[in-house]
Amino acid sequence: DHARREKNLFQAYRQDLEENYLYRLEVLNELKQALSSTQSELAVFYQPKLSLNTGKISKVEALIRWNNKRLGFVSPELFILVAEQAGLINQVTNWVIDRVIYDLRQWDQIGISLQVAINLSVHDVTNIDLLPGVVQRLKLAGLGKNKLAFEITESDLMKEPEKAIEQLQAFRTYGFNLAIDDFGTGYSSLSYLKNMPVTELKIDKSFILKLDQQLEDQNIVQTIIALARTFKLEIVAEGVENEATLRLLNAWGCDWIQGYFISKPMASDQIQRWLEEHGTTKWIRNDIEKYRY
Ligand code: C2E
Ligand code: MG
Ligand code: MG
Ligand code: MG
């Protein structure tokens, strides 16, 4: 089937790049420079999440971007992996957190209120210094804990489930929202899911991209939504690219959608303008009403 074939092709291509030792070494060296340079090539983009319950945009996801002078645009899927393997991921994550807190303060001053979800790798979650560091920086910036949330992929969670559960529990106890990302691709067992201290489940976009055309994906997604309800988790669908898919998800009671149909990830000044145009409150609200069955 088409979506899976596309994914396999992409993965094969990615594997080629990743197995190219010299290329990866170059990525690593350039990344080290980018992290230490003040004129950073790195940036954080933001993608809106639309609530199908309220029709509002109150949350966004932070996605790192890197445009290197020699390598050009490097995919985060690749350089995040390189950073993980080289022991640099904590530095990358800290860079993202600082950038997000900076943008949150700017938005705060002009009256834009958003919760930003930051992607964490398993090495971040098991790093016991991360949580106190985040808490301290939020306090210094005068921002509440409802301003940040965190996402971790199902497959990363399953790399060290016991340790991850323990650390995530600390994040929850502090009051941060947590999401399992890319759900449906990571082989987690129901017993782990039951004990996972998370608030949100994000359905992997491979099930969503062609949802309107694929009966099998429709069955899978309805099953995941039912499962999420059992565990009282909010449901996010990522990779929503068209109206037909939005309609299906809305009919099945999906809570949030994210994807190119709403907007691609945007730079901080761009999203500022985008929100001013569409409004953080009741954007698309009337549209949502018309999508309801
Ligand atoms: P993710 O966290 O699952 O993020 C969703 C990805 O789907 C993003 O790709 C986003 O641009 C893309 N996307 C969103 N809507 C659509 C859509 O409608 N259609 C399609 N085809 N794609 C859509 P991106 O930005 O390339 O990031 C890829 C992955 O890299 C992320 O997947 C995440 O796992 C990782 N990543 C990105 N930024 C960070 C970061 O700051 N830290 C860490 N640890 N990982 C990150
Ligand atoms: Mg994510
Ligand atoms: Mg995802
Ligand atoms: Mg992903």
From TrEMBL:
GO terms for molecular function: cyclic-guanylate-specific phosphodiesterase activity. The keyword Transmembrane applies. One of its GO terms (cellular component) is membrane. Residues 24-279 form the EAL domain. GO terms for biological process: signal transduction. Keywords: Membrane, Transmembrane, Transmembrane helix. This is Diguanylate cyclase/phosphodiesterase. It comes from Nitrosomonas ureae. The chain holds residues 490 to 782 of 786 of the full protein.
